[in-house]
Design goal:
Length: 135
């Protein structure tokens, strides 16, 4: 049975964000700004429904979805694109596939102890973020 990820998570660290954003064609000014942000995550996980909020001082991004059901995700706040997105479990990892203009786009969430790990991919770039569960 997959873990329940419900909780609030504080930013701990990230690696390779600038190159990941470059792969998404984000301009240099916005890339530098995003690399300075320290986002928090809030996850509400009820059965097959999830809401994932990425919270920053600049703007919040909310994903609201049913597991295993493809939906159109508006990534306008991120890079101006729309994707056909499906989120499902692969073992203990929550896996998101975002089909659209960029090859190999998506992410994975998983827990290690009380830390939430996020691995984001676009083209050949990988960014890893770590968050500490606080409640």
């Amino acid at each position: 049975m997959p873990p329940n990820l419900t909780g609030y998570y504080r930013f701990v660290s990230q690696e390779n964000m600038d190159n990941y954003l470059r792969a998404l064609d984000i301009n240099v000014v916005l890339r530098k700004l995003v690399c300075l942000l320290k986002p928090d995550k809030e996850i509400i996980h009820t059965g097959n429904h999830m809401v994932i909020r990425t919270i920053t001082s600049l703007r919040d991004y909310v994903m609201d979805f049913d597991l295993g059901v493809q939906f159109e995700e508006d990534l306008g706040p991120v890079d101006g694109r729309k994707c056909q997105t499906t989120v499902s479990w692969e073992g203990d990892q929550l896996v998101c596939e975002q089909l659209g203009e960029k090859r190999n786009r998506g992410w994975r969430h998983w827990m290690e102890g009380d830390q939430l790990h996020l691995r984001m991919t676009a083209e050949d770039e990988v960014c890893v973020q770590v968050f500490q569960k606080v409640k």
